[in-house]
Amino acid sequence: MALRFAFSALLLVVVLSSLQTVSAQVSDPGSDAGILVCETCEITSIAEAVTAAEEGSVIEVRGGTYPGGLVLDKAVVLRGTDGAVIDGQGEGTLVAITAPDVTLDGFTLRGTGSSHDKEDSAVLVDAERATISNNILEDVLFGIYLREANGSVVQNNVVVARPVDVALRGDGIRIWYSNDVVVDGNQASDGRDMILWYSNNAVVTNNEFNRNRYGMHLMFSDGALIEGNSLNENTIGLYVMYSRDVTIRGNSMSNNAGATGGGLGLKDVDNAVVEGNRFVNNQTGAQVDTSPREPGIENYFIDNVFAFNDVGIAIQPAVRHNTFTGNAFIDNNEHVSLMGRGELKEITWAVDGRGNYWSDYAGYDADRDGVGDLPYTSQQLFESLVGDYPELRLFSYSPASMAIDFSAEAFPSFRPQVKFEDPSPLMKPAASPLLPAVAEEPQTNRVAIGLAGAVGVLAAIAGSAHLRRRARFPIAPATAVVHSGGVS
Amino acid sequence: MKPVISVNSVSKYYGEFPALDKVSFQLGAGEAAALWGPNGAGKTTIMRCLLGLAKFEGSITINGFDPVSAGQQARAAIGYVPQDLPVQPLTVGEMVTYIAKLKRADPEESLHRLTQLGIEAQVNKEMQALSGGMKQRLALALALIGTPSILLLDEPTANLDAKGRAELLQLLHELRSQGMTLLFSSHRPEDVLALADRILLLDGGVLEQEQTPQGFRTSLGNESRLVVFLRNGHRDVAIDTLTRLGLQGRGEGRVVTVAIRLDQKADVLSSLARDGVDIEDFEWERYAWTEQ
Amino acid sequence: MDRAVVAAIAVKETRTAVRHRWFVLYTLIFTALITGFAAVALSASDLTGQAGFGRTSAGLLNLLLLMVPLIGLTTGAQVIVGDRQDRSLDYLLAQPITALEVFAGKFLGAAASFILLLLVGFGGAGVVMAIRGGAGGAGDFLVLVLLTLLLGLAMLSVGIAISSFSRQTAAALGIALTCWLLFVIVGDLGIMGSSIVLGVSSESLLTLTMLNPLDVFKLVSVDLLHTSLDVLGPAGIYAVDRFGSSFSYLMLGLLALWIIVPLPIGYWLFKRTDFQ
After folding, report:
1. Are residue A294 and residue A385 in the same domain, yes or no?
2. Which residue in A136, A356, B85, B158 has the most C-beta neighbors within 10 A?
3. What is the ipTM of this complex?
4. B76: nearest CA in chain C?
């Protein structure tokens, strides 16, 4: 626990200090010659202020609502205060940044147009080293769109997509051909995708991309660091394609439940390190497809938690050179699934005598070194039956399917072929300090259900006891009514 | 006087087997009638028909109600005492209040029935802890809940010892003297003679005859029934032998039944043996009634 | 039908059921199972961060799936035939009440004692969840409670229908256990086998399983507790395509039918058998 905090703190310091150096370059005006815009000021229009500004000016927009269609064509700092709003009234792009070193900070941006062809955006950046920070984006098609904007920073923005059908939505954050960008602390949920294409060395940290189509879609982008993000309840949490040197650490990729969806997908990815992530309750936790594609490259899955997924990890039969160590496979319906016919080859399940934790491991640890003395093998009969007859999945979770597995346990001749073998299974799941923190459960919930349960038990027990207790009747004196019952 | 119970040409078949065959009788208010006959004669079947527990041909009315189509009203007039009260996991008091609710009677007041029958001290006892006599008194107490005008008793004394039997008969006698209509079945002539005004003689589902207590007593006097089980096919020989002795034997399969005087038993058996009838076994019922 | 009479019979039935030692045994087993399910499946750990529906939960759900129908069928099967065998049914029917009142009272009494049993089990599980954490799964838990209740009552109904025409308790229990085996394992294995041999379509497969109340229970539990029916493969996807969001309602309706339909059948058999 302490280790995890220390690590997170260290990480935060590193990220923040790097951000400060970036913003120091662009947003320090070097003088107090600021321009003030407000509804009762001398300058009441942002466009006017920009025209009047010089390179490096700070323009403060204090309160009020201003039209969209702005073009920032010089290196200014445009800062909204007192709830300044830029409202495009459903027309076009709100703010276009065409000069390097622009800062856009503290605005509420709302009401873009709805043209997918023109890619109507709240903020469209076509220049280097832009900083987009602390803005709230509402009712927008595309949110923040970096288009050839190397070295830009997108930080602490909140994007609320237009509530239309997912195919008609735009992307909350979209990054094309922009190297060395930092995307940190943003929330872009309920939109279409978060896109990062053709952009090398991106740092994507501490963002929340939930309930989108792709939580994050990364393509042709090498050297990315994706860390501490929440990528939950999307169709697919994170999909990485045609990229190399990708580090995926400490993210939560859970409840991504589409029929073909899942937490993480790797397709044609080389030298990926997937470490300390949590994959819970997805259709498929992680899917590995032709990764790595180049010879001599190894991908690593280290200390991740795969729990309650229908399939923990799905691997294409042609995949080689992946190493799995220290991962915890907990209660997945199927821990590792082979997608199609074939067999798993050249996959490493243990490094230096350290394998993975498997919740259904039935071996023992006589020498108490934390590693099971028998290898873990995967050979569920029902699973393999389902592999051959997919329609029989209908009987998952049924006593009949359990009976089939049990018969295979009891009669070795029924046992299917071993799918893979972990030579050094861990006896306990490894708790990586990278794993994202767990939200505390609200205490009121617990108290409520505890009380309800207690009341239920007490009521039922009291009721049963009342019914079990013999009723006591007073004994009438024998002389009282002898033979006077009377019959009609 | 309008009859309380009216049974008109009632027949009941279990498959081909006639359990009752065109039985008719009427019972007026305050009358006490006994159903008399061997096992399987149809006594219990009549009771089931009266209670609406069995379907039948013919018609029955209880206080003018049809036990099948208006069973609830018909049964409201009847207090039923089974041969052996089914024991429930309840105390006596709980059972009384339960039956009282079913009869829509006041549960508190119904508890006084226990006092009436002298078992008020048992009120908090488990039913299964009751002796046979106590249980039968409870059954009677339960039957009396809701003040029915008819008591229907199926072999009420069958499971009682001599003392219990005497006490129960005493109770029933009192009820009768209070004007209750009684219909009961019994194996014991003492019961019949103690309680019944009328005796309905049943055999093989047929109401053969109705007797007064005097007639019943006379017919019992020196008659009994001998049932002989034959080892081989000497039935005709046996019947011939009986005819020679002046007796009318009735044969069916390997069984021959004959009504005889009490003192004839040894004579008959030895005559049969003498004539080469191979007797496997026999039964002798002392209080059979004549079939003539 | 006199409600006071029905209530009196129901209360008496509940009372005698609760006084039975089987009731205590069943309650203990059921409580242990459902509490285990709550502890394992519905509470989050530091490691997983949230509760989930996995193999262990499925295993416990399976135990529930074995226990609840077993309790429901066997208790239901003894309700009427037991009384018939010790002749207390005749005695009851000899009272000034109707056969319908007797039947309704018997069913309600059996149902009430069954609900008491479930309440103890589920309540205990609630307490465990509160102590151990996992109240976040409270909604799921409530769904499970209601579903189990429906399944249990359905099995009770079937049991009572069996009881209605049986002459011997042993025979009724035999039929009940046969039904149980059929519902629990034999039916599914049969469908699986014929599916492999004959190649049954997803549609027919789904329809066939929908005839089995236990499968219906499982389908609706997976639909409501799990993220989606996709885990059930092609047939599950077909179900989603064909019925969409109304699938759960359809399944709940089917379960309700399993409660309702056996009752008039049982009543008819009861009258036929006891009023010959």
Report:
1. no
2. A356
3. 0.84
4. C96
